[in-house]
Amino acid sequence: xxxxxxxxxxxxxxxxxxxxxxxxxxxxxxxxxxxxxxxxxxxxxxxxxxxxxxxxxxxxxxxxxxxxxxxxxxxxxxxxxxxxxxxxxxxxxxxxxxxxxxxxxxxxx
Amino acid sequence: xxxxxxxxxxxxxxxxxxxxxxxxxxxxxxxxxxxxxxxxxxxxxxxxxxxxxxxxxxxxxxxxxxxxxxxxxxxxxxxxxxxxxxxxxxxxxxxxxxxxxxxxxxxxxxxxxxxxxxxxxxxxxxxxxxxxxxxxxxxxxxxxxxxxxxxxxxxxxxxxxxxxxxxxxx
Lengths: 109, 170
Description:
The structure holds 2 protein chains of 2 kinds.
Chain A: H1 3-25, H2 29-55, H3 59-88, H4 98-101
Helix pairs in contact in A: 1-2, 2-3
Chain B: H1 3-27, H2 32-53, H3 68-95, E1 101-106, H4 112-124, E2 128-134, E3 137-142, H5 150-168
Antiparallel strand pairs in B: 1-3, 2-3
């Protein structure tokens, strides 16, 4: 275990926990998708980079690179398909209340 | 050999080379047995999939040969932006202070693969999700919208990606 592995594993754990917290906190489907898909993307990328630091140069590095490329291709597509389904079914995105607060206040309805 | 047959052959070889580089990365060995097995299985798979993998109208040189140094620079910028934006989203989750909005803008990229890579990298960057891509018109859900003006929002979201991708593909 070198220092790069530790840093990236800790980053991955933090992003994963906060992404799942965001799924509970956020108000509608699009924002929940933001929290779940994109934060967990960064978390999985952190774990993969940590694994690259762990194994060093060798045969496992090539496999990790292939997995990373595959993940970079598939992960945004799955998020995009869910968002596109919601968009084409006419789901309206949640907006903060501009009229009451002048644009920069907290939501109240 | 007419033009169509030659182009079909080139499409077959592009498929084969893409598959075989994946095989080399995955096995990471130069044994004879491994290479022969790779070549045979790659030819078998390319015989089935070459017509899907490369579209018939996609005949530009830059559509298949990205400039490698700009592509590596693009990947570095993408990963760096992912981490920066992740910390921003983290901060927004902690404070619960979000301002989501749908923004529409257009892209100047021409080839299909460059547009797909642009939308994928917008989705990979936390805080923005591409909802729809129709020709050159993108619909993006933005978690912390600073503006709804089309051109300015496009500049903020796709700015550096589009500049680099125009050098990589077209």
